[in-house]
Design goal:
Helix content of chain B: over 70%
Structural class of chain A: mainly alpha
Strand content of chain A: under 5%
Distance between the termini of chain B: 47 Å
Number of strands of chain B: 4
Mean pLDDT of chain A: 80
Oligomer: heterodimer
Radius of gyration of chain A: 19 Å
Order of helices and strands of chain B: HHHHHHHHHHEEEEHHHHHHHHHHHH
Helix content of chain A: 55-70%
Shape of chain B: globular
Number of helices of chain B: 22
Low-confidence stretches of chain B: none
Chain lengths: ~100, ~600
């Protein structure tokens, strides 16, 4: 849900008061959980790409044969992975 | 005045502040462009940068900024009278609070979602980044001390609270298991766990449970307080710290340890989820109860006590136990101390960290920033006002001003909220015998929610600062234990009122630094910056004065006769931290002054905004 816009908005309908209330409640109760789940997934993807595509960073872990076989599955993740890897990180990131 | 009129004043302030002032600034100065791609869209990585619906973000922002601060601060500040506290909550939010939250989001959005460390490096100076991060570490240590004291000394020493709290935590763990391992539907999970949490709190109120905790854990009764209740006076190795305070603070720290080292889905997150419902339902029932009850302010509850917040100059303290009276020191001069005592309810630096590192990276549309940042802050103002009313009418109507003074003397500042909330909830049919421990569990959970996060952050920070030179700090357990030991030292040795003011001071200083960054950013873009610069000046001068005054107070107390060793250590620590914060802030201000001059000389590049 965190990366979704309101379903009603997508369908072109004006979201009702109740839809807004539900979203606010979700934001208070569950949005954090969804973000943590995404962060966990992101960390796992980092590790996976590092193992399979380490050659890209000059860290040969898997023989290139296997990397090449996995490449089609990893390609969709590469652009977001690069953004995460190259972004300047800070201690305050751990707070939010 | 009637309590409902006070709430109405709050609503009018929201209408004027949000509807006119904030919208004018948004439209004329920031000029958000709904068609512009935000960092959440431009740099979407599916983790940190992820666009979210404006209502979801509003809820997220409010939940992230509302903790013990907006609840405890107003209750303590009533020592100057309810009028100064109410005025600061309203005007602080109106002129400074929303400004900081909203502008921090916009700064993050317009500067590619960069964090405050990176922004201070760019806009102030390279060294400001390191200063800021060490500053944040001490700030978090003060959060641990202030919240840890509330949880361990005030709330959990009530024998009706601990079992309920531990059972709610157990239910939270069950919620995690049901959600992540058994893959159960979230609605079913929520329904089952919330009902179980209520049953857990109720079990804690049963007489045999309370008797067991009183006799076996808290220790035998050694005397009675002004309210006729038992006081435990058995000292521990920490001098003035009594046995129940020691035991329950230790329990709170152990809970924080688990929160810091266990996977977040296993401990902190599901417990926070169940806690949310306890807190939400409590606030809802309290507000409804207040509206039904609509009591007038009690005649004996002064609008203004005196400049120094000296309760005994406005109330008859002769009935209070001399031992308790000794601990009841006047808060100090209203300026600057009121403005740091109420932090989160009016303005808080914590919000700027959440706004820049969290919300700004999820904002889908620039035009949503005011609704999310400003709106959540105005809602928090409402929460702070409600908290103020728990003291003034919740306790004031039922126990009178003398009752409030007695509770302050007994160190029950957070307990005042629990009592007031239980009185309000009783108007919707919740018996006070359940409402009081419910309010205490509610507050304890709110405190613990932040404390888990803080210990986790302190662990990461120590690994970052010291991990290269001392590799042991990279160890999760070691880093957490060091953070908890430092927290324990602050909890067991500090005077709560001083620790709270220091925490508020660090918080407000953080807010003023956020305003400073925004001012520099506005200047560099050729925008009107007075709406952030004047609040920055006020908060900076006020907070430096408050910290210096606190340092002076704690150092001058060192000369007092018969001061226990733990309090001597605590005063030294508090004084040194206050001085460090002031020096760090002055360094940052000096660098900022140079950056100001540089920004004035350079012609702004208007196309960048």
């Amino acid at each position: 849900m965190p990366n979704e816009t309101n379903d009603e908005e997508v369908k072109g309908k004006k979201p009702s008061w109740m839809d807004g209330f539900k979203s606010v409640m979700y934001g208070m109760a569950g949005h954090d959980m969804a973000r943590y789940a995404l962060k966990t997934r992101g960390s796992m993807e980092h590790l996976f790409i590092l193992i399979t595509m380490g050659d890209l960073l000059g860290i040969p872990i898997l023989p290139p044969y296997y990397s090449l076989r996995l490449l089609p599955y990893v390609v969709p993740q590469i652009s977001t992975w690069k953004r995460r890897m190259l972004r300047e990180k800070d201690l305050t990131d751990a707070l939010a | 005045m009637n309590a409902v009129v006070t709430l109405f004043i709050g609503v009018v302030a929201i209408f004027l502040g949000y509807g006119f002032y904030a919208k004018t600034i948004d439209r004329k100065v920031i000029q958000p462009d709904g068609k512009k791609a935000t960092p959440a869209r431009m740099y979407m990585d599916g983790v940190d940068f992820t666009p979210a619906n404006r209502n979801v973000l509003f809820g997220y922002q409010f939940k992230s900024i509302a903790a013990l601060g907006p609840i405890t601060g107003p209750i303590v500040a009533v020592q100057w009278g309810w009028l100064p506290a109410l005025l600061w909550i309203i005007f602080g939010t109106f002129f400074i609070g929303w400004v900081q939250d909203y502008s921090s989001i916009m700064l993050g959005v317009r500067e590619d979602g960069q964090s405050f460390g990176a922004l201070s490096y760019r806009f102030i100076s390279p060294r400001s980044r390191s200063i800021l991060l060490t500053f944040i570490y001490f700030y978090l240590l003060l959060i641990m001390a202030a919240f840890g004291k509330i949880v361990g000394y005030d709330l959990m020493t009530n024998p009706a609270v601990p079992l309920g709290l531990l059972l709610v935590i157990g239910v939270g763990l069950l919620a995690g298991q049901m959600t992540y391992k058994w893959k159960m539907d979230i609605i079913v999970t929520s329904g089952i766990t919330v009902v179980l949490a209520f049953v857990g709190i109720w079990l804690g109120t049963l007489a045999p449970v309370q008797g067991f905790i009183t006799n076996v854990i808290n220790g035998a009764v050694a005397g009675t307080g002004p309210d006729g209740k038992a006081i435990q006076t058995y000292a521990t190795v920490f001098g003035a710290v009594t046995r129940p305070q020691f035991i329950w603070s230790l329990v709170a720290l152990v809970l924080c340890y688990f929160g810091a080292v266990l996977p977040i889905w296993r401990w902190a997150q599901p417990i926070n989820y169940v806690s949310f419902w306890i807190v939400f339902l409590g606030i809802l029932a309290g507000t409804l109860g207040l509206l039904i009850w609509h009591p007038a302010f009690p005649a004996d509850f002064p609008a203004f006590t005196n400049w120094n917040g000296n309760l005994c100059a406005s109330a008859n303290c002769s009935s209070i136990d001399p031992k308790l009276l000794k601990n009841m020191v006047p808060l100090g001069p209203m300026w600057p101390l009121l403005f740091v005592t109420i932090a989160c309810g009016a303005v808080s630096g914590w919000h700027s960290l959440v706004s820049s590192s969290g919300t700004a990276r999820q904002l889908e549309n620039e035009a949503d920033a005011l609704y999310v940042g400003g709106g959540a802050m105005f809602l928090e103002m409402f929460l702070a006002t409600l908290s103020l009313l728990t003291a003034v009418v919740g306790v004031g109507v039922t126990k009178g001003f003398a009752g409030y003074v007695g509770l302050v003397a007994a160190g029950k500042n957070a307990g005042i909220f629990a009592i007031g909330l239980s009185e309000m909830m009783s108007k919707v049919g919740v018996p006070t015998s359940f409402g009081l421990p419910y309010g205490s569990v509610f507050l304890t959970l709110m405190g613990l929610t932040i404390m888990y996060l803080v210990v986790r952050f302190m662990r990461v920070a120590s690994a970052e600062f010291l991990g290269d030179s001392i590799p042991l700090f990279k160890n999760t357990t070691f880093g957490s234990i060091i953070a908890l030991l430092l927290s324990a030292l602050m909890i067991y040795t500090g005077f709560w009122a001083r620790v709270w003011v220091l925490f508020g001071g660090a918080n407000q200083l953080m807010a003023s630094l956020a305003l400073l960054l925004v001012t520099l950013w506005l200047m560099s873009n050729g925008k009107n910056y007075m709406w952030t610069f004047i609040p920055f000046l006020f908060m900076f001068v006020t907070t430096i004065a408050a910290l210096l005054l606190t340092a002076f107070s704690v150092f001058s107390q060192l000369g007092a006769a018969n001061l226990p060793v733990d309090k001597i250590i605590g005063n030294w620590l508090a004084g040194l931290i206050a001085i460090y914060l002031v020096i760090a802030a002055l360094f940052l201000a000096w660098d900022a002054l140079k950056a100001f001059n540089k920004a004035r000389e350079n012609k702004p590049v208007k196309t960048s905004v």
